[in-house]
Amino acid sequence: MEHAQFNHGLLNFLDSSPTPWHAVATIKARLDEAGFAELDEKDEWSLEKGQGYYVIRNGSSIVAFRTGKGEVVESGIRMVGAHTDSPCLKVKPNPELRRKGFFQVGVEVYGGVLLNPWFDRDLSLAGRVTVLDDAGTVKDVLVNFSKPVAFIPSLAIHLDREANSNRSINAQTDLPPVMMQVPDSDTTTFASLLERQIATEAGIGVRKVLGYELSFYDARGASFVGLRDEFIASARLDNLLSCYIGLQALLDTSADEPTLLVCNDHEEVGSVSAEGAQGPFLSALLDRWCGTEKSRVIARSMMISADNAHGIHPNYMDRHDENHGPLINQGPVIKVNHNQRYATNSRSAGVYRHISDELGLPYQTFVVRSDMGCGSTIGPLTAGNLGVTTLDIGVPQLGMHSIREMTGTEDGYTLYRVMQAFMQRPQIF
Question: Which chain positions lie within coiled-coil regions (predicted)?
Answer without folding.
Answer: none
